[in-house]
Amino acid sequence: MTVAHAWVGLMALQRLKSLRGKFDSYYGKQVDAFLRFFDKHKDAFVQGAWFPDSVISDNLAGGHTYKLGVPKNKSEEEKAVVIKNRTPGYLSCQTLIKDKSRLSEKLYNDYSYTLPDRCEALSHSIRDMILIQRKEPKGSDIMFNDDQITLYFLMLSHYIADAHVPPHCDSRDFYTPSTIHPDMESWWDKEILKYYAFDKERKVFDYDINGAVELKKDAKKLFETSFLCEALKILNSRAWSPKDKEILGEGNVKIYDYLKAVCFVSYLVSTEFIPLSMPASQYNKLKILEDRQYFDRLKQISSHIFADAIDSIALVWILTWDKYNKLQEDIAQKKKEIASENKKKKKTTP
After folding, report:
1. Which CATH class is domain 4-348?
2. What is the rounded CA–CA span in Å between residue 317 and residue 309?
3. How far is C-alpha 185 from the geometric centre of its chain's CA atoms?
4. 41: pLDDT confidence band, cut at 50, 70 and 90?
5. pTM of the complete model beyond 0.85
6. Strands 198-199 and 81-82
7. Would you say 294 and 115 are in contact if contact means Cβ atoms under 8 Å apart?
8. Euclidean distance between CA atoms 76 and 80, whole angstroms
9. From 35, 56, 131, 235, which residue has the greatest number of CB atoms within 10 Å?
10. Among candidates 266, 213, 288, which has minimal Cα distance to 64?
11. Nearest alpha-carbon partner for 265 in 169, 343, 336
């Protein structure tokens, strides 16, 4: 059972708390309500965030990936497109792309890999669950409860985090016989457990007096050398607000578009890390945790990957939480328009 998914989710809560003062009064209240909701459910993060792998297992059918690649034949060439979705400027993984002309590459996408669709669907489902919960009387047999809504938020965070994992977005196979993908994720888990207090029996993190995930007392100084510490520094150096003009990035209007842009950048990061020129016979034998050059590079890109994953989860969570309110506003406006139209019809009816 991985702890990385739970850790980035818990850090996303802290991220929202730290950004609270930079939001306007409307979104500040939304964050307060969201944090109050989650304060009662933090111990569910490890199990809940891992359900997409441990129970649903749609990672075996493409739900956790969005595979992009250079067209390999005429059929793929005909279907290849230039991806025009862009991540917002505050995310930093895009700074890892040295050759900016690569943003205009034509890439083939096998649409059986559905990660952005999964995130869009979960976001809508959460909105509907909250809507039903607030409208149904207490004790109703069909009402969703807080635990169910929490689970869906945690599942959503799992898929969002996966979009930031380079091998999840690269059509090359880095899992078998290559070990690049599992080595990367297992190292991330080990780093988190190395520095953070975690009860393996109860599968929960320890929290400090402020409710934040707590570092082990004997690991605080060494933590400064970790990529996790660097990820938090990157986060602290930037800010965003849900009301920013292009909060989802250029060309993006939905959660689907945003995650598509994230996956595109993750693909480019993957090809920077393992160049396209490297034959499979070479990367199949590559041990990224033993090769000093690749291990150093892994530490560098990991800090950006984790910082961006935390910000993405925080953003999508708060926008999803707000969807209920936006839907209510749209419904109210539509009702006014219908009422106004009916009045006009009555006046013109002989």
Report:
1. mainly alpha
2. 12
3. 15
4. confident
5. yes
6. unpaired
7. no
8. 6
9. 235
10. 266
11. 169
205 phi and psi, to 5 degrees? Answer: -80, 155
Q: Could you identify the residue written with the tokens 């979960």?
A: 122
At 226, give phi and psi (nearest 5°). Answer: -85, 150
Q: Residue 179 is which amino acid?
A: T
**Per-residue pLDDT tens over the stretch 197-242:** 999 888 899 998 888 899 999 998 899 999 999 999 999 999 999 9
* Domains of the chain, residue spans: 4-348
Q: Which amino acid is at 181?
A: H
Whether the Cβ atoms of residue 319 and residue 254 lie closer than 8 Å to each other = no
At 163, which amino acid appears? A
- Enter the tokens of residue 135: 């409208």
Q: Are 285 and 174 in contact (CB under 8 A)?
A: no
Each residue of 306-325: pLDDT tens digit? 999 999 999 999 999 988 66
Measured between alpha carbons, how far is 173 from 284 in angstroms, rounded to an integer?
9
Q: How far is CA 57 from CA 109, 117, 167, 279, 318, in A?
A: 22, 16, 17, 30, 26
Structure tokens at 123: 């976001």
- Mean pLDDT (whole number) for 65-69: 94
C-alpha dist (Å) from residue 9 to 4, 249, 294, 306 = 9, 22, 27, 11
3-state secondary structure of 196: strand
Nearest alpha-carbon partner for 11 in 49, 63, 60: 49
Q: What is the DSSP string of 10-59?
A: HHHHHHHHHHGGGS-HHHHHHHHHHHHHHHTSGGGHHHHHHHIIIII-GG
Helix, strand counts (H, E) of the chain: 11, 5
